[in-house]
């Protein structure tokens, strides 16, 4: 179950909000918090970024991501990649990175394929590939691999700007916390400490 954030985390969030109030759509003044990928600019995945496993034969390289206009007061960033069309009843989580430093402006191509290539302090969270071996070590990027014959699935990349330096500590999330638990804590549990979010969707079918 979700644990209420400790007093220190709440204080940090309120302090950040005293510097900036950001609307839910990610706007601050006339600057919009944005997330893009030059590798997925056409809105689809090439085989370079598709899973190598579960019947797919891609290279499973994580795509390059770029972002801009991070909200003032941001102390960390969190990334989640989710397939809402997976036939599971609950979607499918493909990638998650937490505690990205607020000074970062993106993730290089392949950064999600090893914990050693993530920004200092950041870590890859559990996904629905946990313990399958399909992504190498747990916490690595797992590319799309929808069932044959499905309509192209939608893969939504979302970057969250947070007014806490460590989302795991602030949310009381255990080491085994799922992407869904992190998503709940980030979207609801942290309250006003969620300063903004930016997202885009790419599709893939086979």
Describe the protein in words.
The protein is α+β, with helices and mostly antiparallel strands and 206 residues long. The protein is built from three helices and twelve strands, in the order αβββββββββββααβ. The strands form four sheets. It has a five-stranded antiparallel β-sheet with strand order 10-8-7-11-12, covered by helices on one side. The protein starts with 6 loop residues before the first helix and ends with a strand.
What is the element layout, followed by pairings?
Elements (H helix, E strand, L loop, with lengths): L6 H13 L7 E2 L2 E2 L1 E3 L15 E2 L2 E2 L7 E4 L7 E8 L8 E9 L5 E2 L15 E2 L28 E10 L4 H5 L7 H11 L4 E11 L2
Antiparallel strand pairs: 1-2, 3-6, 4-5, 6-9, 7-8, 7-11, 8-10, 11-12
How many domains make up the 3D coordinates? 1
CATH architecture: Alpha-Beta Complex
Helix count, DSSP H or I runs of 4 or more residues: 3
- Which of globular, elongated, flat, extended, rod-shaped describes the shape? globular
The CATH topology is given as Phosphatidylethanolamine-binding Protein
Query: What structural category do the secondary elements indicate?
Result: alpha+beta
**Helix content range:** 10-25%
Q: Quick one: how many beta strands? A: 12
Q: In terms of per-residue confidence, which ranges show pLDDT below 50 for 5 or more consecutive residues? A: 1-28
Spatial order of the strands forming the largest sheet: 10-8-7-11-12
The average pLDDT score comes to: 89
């Amino acid at each position: 179950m979700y644990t209420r954030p400790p007093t220190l985390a709440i204080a940090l969030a309120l302090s950040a909000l005293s510097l900036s109030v950001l609307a839910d759509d990610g706007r601050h003044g006339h600057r919009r918090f944005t997330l893009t990928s030059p590798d997925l600019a056409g809105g689809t995945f090439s085989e370079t970024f598709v899973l190598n496993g579960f019947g797919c034969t891609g290279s499973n390289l994580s795509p390059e991501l770029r972002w801009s206009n991070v909200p003032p007061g941001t102390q960390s960033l969190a990334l989640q990649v989710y397939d809402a069309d997976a036939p599971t009843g609950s979607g499918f989580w493909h990638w998650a990175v937490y505690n990205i430093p607020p000074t970062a402006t993106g993730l290089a191509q392949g950064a999600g394929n090893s914990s050693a290539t993530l920004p200092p302090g950041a870590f890859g969270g559990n996904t629905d590939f946990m313990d399958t071996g399909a992504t190498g070590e747990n916490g690595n990027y797992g590319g799309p691999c929808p069932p044959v014959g499905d309509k192209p699935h939608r893969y939504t990349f979302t970057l969250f700007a947070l007014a806490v330096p460590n989302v795991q500590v602030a949310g009381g999330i255990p080491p085994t916390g799922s992407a869904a638990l992190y998503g709940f804590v980030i979207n609801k549990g942290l309250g006003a400490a969620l300063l903004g979010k930016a997202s885009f969707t790419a599709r893939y079918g086979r």
